DNA sequence: ATTTAATATTGACCGTGGTCAATTTTTGAT
DNA sequence: ATCAAAAATTGACCACGGTCAATATTAAAT
């Protein structure tokens, strides 16, 4: 079983990705139409699905790339040691995650790898988020009666909860940041 | 502005809901096709959309009803006072929420009311979940340094996190119950 | 009983994601 | 250079959710 990847394959894929990025740039993720992408890329519709399993797979790549960049940005800063600083450091990440309802839903849907053999770009980002927070917590003034990895998982859970509520009219009295701060203070503060 | 609802409206709606429930019974939620429902109900496709804004709206009703019943079941039992008992009491609820990937995704998507004026069945259930847990926690041996409503929100957040990971091949080593127990012990235990 | 206005139903039609047999292009062997 | 097998591309076609102008039915007024 041999598998030669032709040059044009890479070219076509690049064209599709570029075209898709352009389309997103114009109207956001939610409004992206496969038809529009293939037209902009100058290929047939079937070609799209020869390169990406479905529309979601393309979205995973586009959104994953962006999210990965946000995570890099967060990681580049000085490791935060307090709850407000942690929230501040994660701000670009959370901001992007909440930028569109569509984006948030897709992120949640693909946050876990469906199969071990194939970790998608978004599941990878969630792992990265986890690792970054864990590293921070290792050197922050937080409760020590619980393992750091568990604390980091909790931060992720609370961040998602706070983001969920952000899209919820019922709880719009409190801002995302304030809510997350309340959560994390209760979760991370050292036992009195 | 008067609005007379005709008798047949109620009848047609009931027929559609019954037909939909039957279809779900046979093949689950994920596989439900609007076409199949209207055929089983003996009405035209347009009629369906005169009664429900879209397919999701029907799903919200069907899934919301079922979830509400599960919550009633949980509430009927003796108020649990320990973490394992709480998890046990919530078991039927979580079981249903995880019964299908499709169900879980839809629940998350509609967990927050999009508009204050119109709280959907699922958002209502999430509120109910929150209220039940809060009542339990008021009389349980849990940490007292944090308001009960915040504790209850946390339980919800951790439950969702644990369910998410249940669908994730990467974290399938631990069972849902074990994971949730770990989370809740760390979150609810009184400060040492 | 008729009329009329409000309400409900219909089904042909559309938009969009996704499929696949047929065709074209590339690669490697001779 | 020629040819055969593998790989990539094409676009007509399908599935399914959703729309809407036309039609049918109901309820209330006379």
From TrEMBL, chains A, B:
PROSITE patterns: HTH_TETR_2 (PS50977). GO terms for molecular function: DNA binding. It comes from the Bacteria. SUPFAM superfamilies: Homeodomain-like (SSF46689). Residues 33-52 bind DNA. The keyword DNA-binding applies. Residues 10-70 form the HTH tetR-type domain. The keyword DNA-binding applies. This is Transcriptional regulator, TetR family.
